Amino acid sequence: MIGFAFLSEVEQAMDARLMTRKDLAEEMGISGSFLTQLFTGEKPLSDKHKAMFQRWASVS
Predict the structure, then answer these.
(1) Domains held by the chain: number
(2) 31: domain CATH number?
(3) 6, 50 contact by CB (below 8 A)
(4) DSSP letters of 15-53?
(5) Which residues span the domain enclosing 45?
(6) Tens-place pLDDT, residues 46-55
(7) 10-55 pLDDT per residue, tens
(8) Which of 14, 35, 38, 40 is in Cβ range 3.0-4.6 Å of 25 for a Cys bridge?
(9) Helix crossing, 2-16 with 47-59: angle to 10°?
(10) Which residues in 24-46 are b (16+ Cβ under 10 Å) and which e?
């Protein structure tokens, strides 16, 4: 559940920046399909991925 709460905050930041998941994936250097799998829970949200999202949020 923590992962979904975290990703909800990421989606809010994306909305504020008028970004799509595709835009975010490109900025983070990951595939759009992998990003979607993180958001849907098909792939686990690791500490590495959380750090990537946090770096993105602080840079953007």
Answers:
(1) 1
(2) 1.10.260
(3) yes
(4) HHTT--HHHHHHHHTS-HHHHHHHHHTSS---HHHHHHH
(5) 2-59
(6) 899 889 998 8
(7) 999 999 999 999 999 999 999 999 999 999 989 998 899 889 998 8
(8) 35
(9) 20
(10) bbeeeeeeeeebeebbeeeeebe
